[in-house]
Amino acid sequence: MSDYIFYPGCAMESNAKAYYDSLMEIAQPLGINLQEIDDWNCCGATEYVGINLIPAYSLIARNLALAAKMGRKTIISPCSACYLNLAKADYYMAERPSLGEKVNEALAAGDLQYTPGSLDIRHLLDVLINDIGLDKLKEKVVRPLKGLKVAPYMGCMVPRPDYNNRWSDAEHPTELFDVLKAIGAEVVDFPGAATCCGGHMTQIGPETAYELIRRLISSAEKSKADIMVTVCPMCQLNVDAYQGETNSHFGTNYNMPIVFFSQLVGLALGFPPEKLGFGSEVTSTEKALAQIGVDIPESAIAEGKNASRKDFPCRFACEKQPRRKARPQRRQKHE
Amino acid sequence: MSKTPVEHVHARLDHDEDLSLLNEVSMKTAGVSRLEMCIQCGSCGGSCPSEMDMDHTPRTLFAMLRAGMREEALLSNTPWICVSCYHCVVRCPQNVHITDVMYTLKGMAIREKKYRDSTAPDFSETFVDMVEKYGRSYEFGLATRHYLKHSPLRMIRTAAMGLDMLKKGRLSMKPTTIEGMDQLTAILNKAKEMELAHE
Hints:
The complex is a heterodimer.
Chain A: E1 2-6, H1 17-30, E2 32-36, H2 53-68, E3 74-77, H3 80-95, H4 97-108, E4 120-123, H5 124-132, H6 134-140, E5 149-153, H7 175-182, E6 186-187, H8 201-204, H9 206-222, E7 227-230, H10 233-241, H11 243-250, E8 258-260, H12 261-268, H13 286-290, H14 298-301
Parallel strand pairs in A: 1-2, 1-3, 3-4, 5-6, 5-7, 7-8
Helix pairs in contact in A: 1-12, 2-3, 2-4, 3-4, 5-6, 5-7, 9-11
Chain B: H1 5-13, H2 20-28, H3 43-47, H4 58-66, H5 70-75, H6 78-81, H7 87-91, H8 98-111, H9 119-134, H10 139-150, H11 152-157, H12 159-167, H13 181-198
Helix pairs in contact in B: 9-10
Organism (chain B): Candidatus Electrothrix aestuarii
Protein name (chain B): 4Fe-4S dicluster domain-containing protein
Keywords (chain B): Iron, Iron-sulfur, Metal-binding
């Protein structure tokens, strides 16, 4: 077993529970021993840093300081935004020592301190590939996902801007592709693999977000994918939960499920779907999983069962909304 | 009578170049921003997935900073439309910390109350309030407060989705508060003191 410090991040407690549950299942057989940071706090997402610089970096650094006391060197974050924030704070505190000093002066008010560079900050996907290894993963596969066409959606904050030189390519990363291949899935050619889901724009500028979500789903559909696979809670939330709003905005009828890579790894390792958080998605995975003979039991789907694309998620006002056509082709830079 | 383009250029060249705004933004940005190194190549705007909704491309915005156009730059919607995807950052031949410059401009616009639409600044401030109160983000509280103020209609439209997320255990009605709230508050207060001195 390899020992890691675990920084789950706020989303794992709420909207990305499926990510948390599936990670907890697959960690043991893969030999990943996770020790959660005691009393960790929010990383500030992309919001805090837009308000106040030194407080934002002090907020992130409190987690680094708590982690550094744990006697292990490597910290795992499964969330892309948390991962980027931790890595960025570590990098900038060293790049600009005056920032590092100020952050440490703030931390001292809470009897903490952090020396930049003392932790190895890693994303779960990186650990799975580079520490555990694809060979070990393949050995553990008991149910290869043969016949499932997956679009590997890595998003932006994991491969970019790559402060600790971890990734194969900033724009066309291959890591997720390799993991999905290792568990026997058929990985489609997906040009949207490292493009943006819109981040927090679903809350503050929905039209901008809908367009980015539309590009992604349309790219996955053109690639004939049955399902999109992500490594990030925000990406999952935007593409899954806001797919209905995107559909009503453009008058489209997309029906593309999106799940966390750990959920598919869990299936391949033989865990039952209800233990991996399947059923908690808004856009149903039932049809996609049925293709590989996996049924999600009724109990897991709970009451959201018949919430099909037609009447969900915005059945109240969808029909009355003006429908906007997709933007002209020349504006779509990343398809 | 309006000026011809050539007259506009000359008008700008009448006085010595004033880089104070550019320097101010650069100094307020995390890490070594390298904003001064921008060569106006346009790779940033050309790489941006949400550029279509921006009033200025990042390149134009940086030219405005260099020209000392404080009012226009802080009023620009560009930083608020930035989705933090870092596409521009990895393509910038000068390694300018473009995304972080956008964060700096947001902060400056908030402090100087220079924005046309308060939705995004309010969202950031509500998020920060929640984190400062509980130590963790609190989506239910954030969404409720934000939608009530800015788009009650959208709240009704998304109610079904919210309910489904609740049923599926993906949305918590109660915030989680960390144990070390006093410690976090002390750290943030100290950091805010320094932030003010820094300005």
